[in-house]
Amino acid sequence: MKLGRLNHVGVAVPSMHDAIAYYREVMGASLITAPFDMPEQGVKVAFVNTPGEAGTAGTQIELIEPLGETSPIAGFIAKNPAGGQHHLCYEVADIEAARAWFTAQGKRILGPTRIGAHGTPIFFLHPKDMLGQLTEIMETPRGDH
Length: 145
Ligand SMILES: CC[C@@H](C(=O)O)C(=O)SCCNC(=O)CCNC(=O)[C@H](O)C(C)(C)COP(=O)(O)OP(=O)(O)OC[C@H]1O[C@@H](n2cnc3c(N)ncnc32)[C@H](O)[C@@H]1OP(=O)(O)O
Ligand SMILES: [Co+2]
Fold this sequence. Notes:
It is an enzyme of class 5 (isomerase). The chain is of the alpha+beta class and 145 residues long. The chain has one domain (6-139): 2,3-Dihydroxybiphenyl 1,2-Dioxygenase, domain 1 (Roll). It has three helices and eight strands. The chain has an eight-stranded mixed beta sheet. β3 (43-51) and β4 (57-66) form a beta hairpin.
């Protein structure tokens, strides 16, 4: 497996409205997508775009707010009521090859491969196996190779 670009940093927030205001007013962000619900992932999502090098997309900040009581980030927000850095997401060219790579190293994969917010397959690796970082692996969107 070859590690790809850092696609996004997931930031869990208790209030999407307040988080977007923070990125606009405090951080000076101008490109923020409208929030949308992903009930199958148990989160509301919005992306803050940062500039990349010429002609490339920059790493995004993925704002995630819990959606429903069974949200996978409900426990994180309960422990961190002000929110906080939640996960790092790296791109790979082939999601199944990446899954096999981490499985062979005995890393715990959290649930099935599913479709993420960018419309490509993703999976998560347990933070206790990954230097304390919840790690998301996503297949690079077609056309970005
Ligand atoms: C928007 C869609 C998608 C995308 O396309 O990008 C997303 O990003 S969705 C993002 C939300 N979804 C997920 O996070 C799915 C995977 N996560 C999980 O399965 C769980 O959240 C978890 C990682 C297993 C944690 O479950 P939880 O019940 O909240 O906590 P535990 O008490 O079981 O935690 C065990 C242990 O791990 C520590 N922990 C928990 N979360 C994190 C974290 N984000 N980063 C680092 N460490 C974390 C937790 O503190 C516990 O440690 P100890 O207290 O030392 O036991
Ligand atoms: Co993510």
